[in-house]
TrEMBL record:
It comes from the Bacteria. InterPro entries: EmrE. This is Multidrug resistance efflux transporter family protein. Pfam families: EmrE (PF13536). It comes from Mesobacillus jeotgali. Keywords: Membrane, Transmembrane, Transmembrane helix.
Length: 321
């Protein structure tokens, strides 16, 4: 149950991304600065946290020992995740991006065959190629159906081009984030904690963010103070707090694809939190009756995921006893 709770708390802080990115877009800020400033601002906070825990040296050593995997999967997990997400904010409202982003629930499950997990057999503990967790995937479809209902009424009034430019980048991000996260768990193999792993991936992806910032400086000019401040808020809430919480949750279930799918499904809560944030901060209207049905389906899917995880854990305890 602890990984599920950590995932829900992570979803709460991740929701700040959609609300604040939409706020920056409405105020005329460029997606280039929304993306690059978040990760640039994350570095000093993460460095301070890891250094205070006296865990900085292992991060640097790990990157030096395996530079190519670090740079490759950090690019996939952070750059191909957040750059498309902020780009989509230029064409779609925050609620649509948050809703489309929940396809990562399905994306993460579909990526399972690319990884290996440990299973107990008659011959003992063996490592086998993971299979798509169809049981968990079925529950994820319930969550996704609820999200689609929440967004259905809004999507009817959007031009096709806006929907397309808002959806395709988010679809790319939905596969990139779980892929990069899981691959980095394989690379580090439990040797680094969540704080160290987030710092390492941020440092490994930093060259791209610096280049993107330089490109922004030459093309759209420097960011405004308002965008810089809101990017700082995103860096703290979503970049540091949410990412560390989510990585900690996935670390706790590393090697178990069904539980990992359940943790990743908690990110469906981002839609509810983003909806509340846009209502209170950006003064958007309350959802209609169809959207409330969607909210109920999301909560039902979340409950089923949690129940499945608890029952499986209880079954394992009985077997070991």
């Amino acid at each position: 149950m602890r990984p599920i709770l950590l995932g829900i708390f992570a979803a709460f802080f991740f929701a700040f991304t959609f609300v604040l990115n939409q706020s920056m877009e409405l105020s005329g800020g460029s997606w280039i600065w929304s993306a690059s400033l978040r990760y640039i601002f994350m570095v000093p906070f993460l460095m301070a946290i890891v250094a205070a825990r006296r865990n900085l040296k292992p991060v640097i050593q790990s990157i030096k020992q395996n530079p190519f995997p670090w740079f490759l999967w950090s690019f996939v997990g952070f750059v191909l995740f957040y750059a498309p997400l902020t780009y989509a904010a230029a064409f779609s409202p925050g609620w649509l991006i948050a809703g489309t982003w929940q396809i990562t629930i399905i994306s993460g499950a579909l990526l399972s065959p690319l990884f290996y997990e440990r299973r107990m057999t008659i011959e003992g503990l063996v490592t086998v190629r993971a299979k798509i967790p169809f049981k968990g995937l079925g529950m994820s479809v319930i969550i996704l159906a609820g999200i689609l209902l929440m967004q259905l009424e809004h999507a009817r009034h959007l031009p096709f081009k806006m929907v397309l430019l808002g959806v395709i980048p988010v679809l790319i991000a939905s596969f990139a984030y779980p892929l990069g996260n899981r691959k980095m768990m394989e690379v580090t193999n439990g040797d680094l904690d969540a704080y160290q792993r987030v710092l390492g991936m941020t440092l490994a992806s930093l060259p791209f963010w610096v280049l993107l910032a330089l490109y922004g400086l030459l093309t759209v000019g420097p960011p405004t103070m308002n965008q810089s401040f809101q990017s700082l808020l995103v860096a703290i809430t979503s970049g540091v707090i949410a990412t560390v919480l989510f990585f900690k949750a996935t670390d706790l279930v590393r090697g178990n694809m069904q539980k990992l799918a359940a943790v990743e499904a908690t990110q469906a809560m981002e839609v509810l939190f983003a909806l509340a944030g846009e209502f209170f901060i950006l003064s958007l209207p309350l959802p209609n009756s169809l959207s409330w049905i969607g909210i109920i389906l999301v909560m039902l899917g979340m409950a089923l995921h949690s129940l499945s995880t608890i029952r499986k854990k209880e079954g394992q305890i009985k077997i070991s006893a």
